[in-house]
Amino acid sequence: MTFELFYWPGLQGRGEFVRLAFEATATPYVEIVRGDSPGQGLDALLHAMDDPRCIDPPYAPPFLRVGDELIGQTANILAYLGPLLGLVGESPRARRWVNQLQLTLADLVAEVHDGHHPIASRLYYSNQRAEARKRTADLIDYRLPKFFEYFERVLAHNPHPGGWLSEGAMSYADLSLFQVIEGLYYAFPRAMTGFATAFPRCRAVRDAVAREPRIAAYLKSSRRIAFNTTGIFRYYRELDRASPF
């Protein structure tokens, strides 16, 4: 089985959540846009999205091609990959639960993005600076604590040992929580100063994922695209501020 990942070039974005699942499990995958062989590159992504013969077209990247099927939406892709890669429990309840956690993280990711693009995604950040300062202030002061209080509670109430979000093993939701925390440390270094003290269980998940040998190797490799100001998590000095953590 060949997994072909389609995502925009030059940024981690939502595609990174899928990459982490592949990297954590040493699963071979082809990143179409980053290749230079026939049928690869940005044109291949655009063609796959707009192909009139496609019966299951994705709305936007990331999407995964497996055989003749295109699977879109990050949480949907991970719900498909989780059982195949051993990143979710075997019971239907466990799979629904991890998907629920992933969808909650997707809500958080959307709010982080809207912090620097509060009016419209099609406008440059420079066109909405004042509104971004207001939106990000609420994100840091109210929304981030609210989300992480929830995940801290989930971790505290998990009856299984190991310190993971679901059952006793790392799931794709743990990988995604790691990515969100990493992104927030990049985007808001001042605001995240007290994060480890305020949310020790969440920080422990982040540290445990980073110590996983395959993830540690990936983070040091050229395959890991650096955070930058074209992705979801963006550092703008004027948006960073002290937090209530």
From TrEMBL:
Residues 91-232 form the GST C-terminal domain. GO terms for molecular function: glutathione transferase activity. Gene3D superfamilies: 1.20.1050.10, Glutaredoxin. SUPFAM superfamilies: GST C-terminal domain-like (SSF47616), Thioredoxin-like (SSF52833). The keyword Transferase applies. GO terms for biological process: glutathione metabolic process. Pfam families: GST_C_3. InterPro entries: Glutathione-S-Trfase_C-like (IPR010987), Glutathione-S-Trfase_C_sf (IPR036282), GST_C (IPR004046), GST_superfamily (IPR050213), Thioredoxin-like_sf (IPR036249). CDD domains: GST_C_Sigma_like. Keywords: Transferase. PANTHER family: GLUTATHIONE S-TRANSFERASE. This is Glutathione S-transferase.
